[in-house]
Amino acid sequence: MIIWRKSSLEGVPVIFGNAMPKSGSKLLLQVLGGFSQVGPFVLTGRGPVRTITIDGRTRSAKEIQADLDRLEPGDVGWGYLRATPENIHYLRRPGWASYFILRDPRDMLVSHVYYATDMYEGHGMHEYYSRLPNIDERLKVAICGVHDGEVKLPDVAERYERMEGWLDCPEVMLLHFEDFILERDSTISAMLSHLERAGYSLSLDRQIAIQKVAQAIDPKKSPTFRKGRVGDWREHFNEENKILFKEVAGDLLVRLGYEPDNNW
């Protein structure tokens, strides 16, 4: 274990990992935690900075800013922040190395349904999904959303609309969950380059730094790695699900770069 002297943090940025829910946030946090092996960085130990609380309350911009204000040079924070003007302004500020991770929306939906149904009984959709007979019916609800009394879930298009502003923010590095599986080392190298652009100079050889960061990845501790592969949605989406997804999401997959057109 490397012990860094933090007596001087001049030029050391704040690191912040932002995520689309059920899209690899825990994986991203592991990688960013691995940055402690290449610089004087440390996970804060605080929970994620959220736009929506666990009990469903929308937090104010002032509350979110107060959380972000607590982060100091060398701190590694994370959260699930929508792309509001206030949040974009904050995460793109000088002295910050910010990242945003997303994944194929179809895989995100499958992960969401399994997590809410089988892995976390405290999830707001757990009881609702548990009353449905199968994964097919649960996916339909996840795609279309639901507003049934106290149970509220936005449809898939609305979920991504809240986050799409991050795609046009070059100061916040866009990451794809799939790249950590298919192109892990080059993705970590690009993340280190983003860190350097934020003002930090790596003292380690690049390949050694990549290896040290990669060692922090533990699939067993990342719920998103339920199967640890790309394209799991193909085993769950039937033709009706595909048609429904296209009706609700439109050209979302094309905009995100996951399909060349809607003929999938």
Q: What is the number of domains?
A: 2
String of helices and strands: EHEEHEHEHHHEEHEHHHHH
Which ranges are low-confidence, i.e. pLDDT below 50, for 5 or more consecutive residues? Answer: none
Number of discrete helical segments: 12
Q: What is the CATH superfamily classification of the largest domain?
A: P-loop containing nucleotide triphosphate hydrolases
Which structural class do you get from the secondary structure elements?
alpha/beta
Number of strands: 8
How is this structure best described in words?
- The chain has 264 residues and is α/β, with parallel strands linked by helices.
- It has 2 domains: 14-104 and 161-221, Rossmann fold, CATH 3.40.50; 105-158 and 227-256, no CATH class.
- Helix content is 40%, strand content 13%.
- It contains 12 helices and 8 strands.
- The strands form 2 sheets. Strands 1, 2, 3, 4, 5 and 8 form a 6-stranded parallel sheet that branches. The chain has a two-stranded antiparallel ribbon with strand order 6-7.
In brief:
The protein is α/β, with parallel strands linked by helices and 264 residues long. The chain has helices spanning 25-34, 61-69, 85-91, 105-119, 126-130, 135-144, 156-161, 179-182, 184-197, 206-214, 239-249, 252-256; strands at residues 14-19, 42-43, 49-50, 75-80, 96-102, 146-148, 151-153, 172-176.
